[in-house]
Design goal:
By secondary structure, this protein is an alpha/beta fold. It has a single domain, classed as P-loop containing nucleotide triphosphate hydrolases (Rossmann fold, 3-Layer(aba) Sandwich). 30% of the residues lie in helices and 20% in strands. The chain has 8 helices and 10 strands. It has a 6-stranded mixed beta sheet with strand order 6-7-8-3-9-10, with helices on both faces. A 4-stranded antiparallel beta sheet has the order 2-1-4-5, covered by helices on one side. Helix 6 links the parallel strand 7 and strand 8. Helix 3 packs parallel to helix 5 and helix 5 packs parallel to helix 6. The chain is globular. The structure holds adenosine-5'-triphosphate. The site of adenosine-5'-triphosphate has 11 residues, from strand 2 and helix 1.
Length: 288
């Protein structure tokens, strides 16, 4: 990694105006054409799950999870290691098929789709940001961001023009030609955010998006992630151990043993000190 100058914080207030509106050619929708499922016929959430159960052999990773994410809202999923956070994200995103329960995108059930249909759904209507970005190391930042749009049918020129706009809006102008190894951790995560937004997804899923970053860079990345998804009208699901990361989101659920429990009842991080506690203790311990 280079000792890169941190990019300017972005998007600044009002940045929605600066985010590109050029969308790639719309991908064929994978949502069933039928009516909205009656359970959500009134106020249809962007994404919802009912009675979600997922088992791995003897392990019940999800034991009946209910969750709703409104249009354009962000949800933090917290809880200790092994509580089912990533499994929930994978079920919501159509990566895992649940053993029971319903997942609905805009009121239409998606859990019964075939693997091919779910793959198309993920490519065309969801965006993903992971802990280590998962950028393709041999591609430049521009190519990484352009790729999802090309996979959903946009021409190379169209996809790269839009990618350039996304990168500029996210404070990354000038990094287009760099490969992931030539970016700072914060820059790489911003590229991952740009890549997640480029197909104008319905929902962005982020699994520990700041897990590999220092506190200040993580703070910037969360701001960019929350504000840019909001600016384009996407809903956001963030899995995190960090209460300060969760605080960026509109709502939070806590998980324990595969269930949603009242917020604040889990430590989110095992037996160790919680986020910010050591700093507070050290500050309090300074002689006055
Ligand atoms: N592919 C898998 N095969 C077998 N067991 C799994 C698999 N994925 C998850 N599990 C188990 O399901 C439970 C929930 O795991 P999950 O990864 O969802 O928890 P988590 O809250 O995301 O944990 P962490 O914070 O450590 O990532 C755990 O007991 C885990 O061991």
């Amino acid at each position: 990694m280079t000792a890169a100058t941190p990019p300017p914080l972005s998007p600044p207030p009002g940045s929605a105006d600066r985010l590109p509106t050029a969308a790639p050619a719309p991908a064929p929708t994978t949502l069933p054409a039928g009516p909205v499922t009656s359970a959500w016929a009134g106020d249809v959430p962007r994404l919802a799950a009912r009675g979600l159960i997922k088992r791995f052999g003897e392990t019940t990773a999800l034991a009946g999870v209910e969750v709703e994410i409104p249009d354009g809202a962000s949800l933090a999923v917290m809880g200790p290691s092994g509580s089912g956070k990533s499994t929930l994200l994978h079920c919501l995103a159509g990566i895992y098929q649940p053993d029971a329960g319903v997942v609905a995108l805009r009121g239409r059930e998606v859990q019964g789709l075939s693997e091919k249909e779910r793959s198309l759904l993920r490519r065309s209507q969801y965006g993903f940001v992971f802990q280590f970005g998962q950028l393709l190391s041999e591609l430049t930042a521009l190519e990484n961001v352009a790729l999802p749009a090309m996979l959903t049918g946009a021409s190379r020129v169209e996809a790269e023009t839009a990618a350039q706009q996304w990168l500029a809006a996210l404070g990354l102008a000038g990094t287009e030609g760099r490969r992931p190894g030539e970016l700072s951790g914060g820059q790489a995560q911003r590229v991952a955010v740009a890549r997640a937004l480029t197909t104008r997804p319905d929902v962005v899923f982020a699994d520990e998006p700041t897990g590999s970053l220092d506190r200040s860079t993580g703070h910037d990345v969360m701001r960019v992630l929350v504000e840019s998804t909001r600016a384009v009208g996407a809903s956001l699901v963030v899995v995190t151990h960090d209460a300060q990361v969760a605080a960026w989101c509109d709502a939070r659920i806590d998980m324990l043993d595969g269930r949603v429990v009242p917020a604040g009842t889990t430590t989110g991080g095992g037996v160790g000190p919680r986020t910010g506690e050591l700093e507070a203790i050290r500050a309090a311990a300074v002689p006055r």
